[in-house]
Amino acid sequence: MSPQVMKTTIWICGLLAFSLTLAAQTKPLLSETFESGSIDPAIWEQKVTGTVSISVVEDATGHGKRVLKVHYPADTPRIAQGAPDAGRAR
Fold it and tell me: Is the model more confident about 89 or about 39?
């Protein structure tokens, strides 16, 4: 294989890899800012038990006025992990 063909092949493979990388991540995994002052149920599912609390509070932040506050005391009972109806863990 000639050096020119090798360079062209490497360039095309690099361009293809770059294009696939751009297409792979279409939106951020987490983009909630909580600046609305409430938890959006379309984004967040709240599974709380006992004295666990989840709220949006006004506090000094890096880029806004509000933050998500999660209070999870050490003595709180655990919620079962895993997908619903997944059966018992083995």
Answer: 39
Task: Give every CB contact of residue 79 below 8 A, 6+ residues apart in sequence.
Answer: 47, 49
Q: What angle do CA 52, 29, 63 make, to 5 degrees?
A: 75
By C-alpha distance, which of 58, 51, 60, 56 is closest to 41? Answer: 56
Phi, psi of 2 (to 5 degrees): -75, 155
Nearest C-alpha neighbor of 68 from the set 42, 33, 41, 43: 33
Question: In Å, what is the CA distance from 69 to each residue of 44, 45, 51, 55, 57?
Answer: 13, 15, 14, 5, 7
* Neighbour tally for 34: CB within 10 Å: 19
Report the Cα 43 to chain-centroid distance in Å: 11
34-48 pLDDT per residue, tens:
888 888 888 888 877
Which pair of tokens denotes residue 66?
């509000």
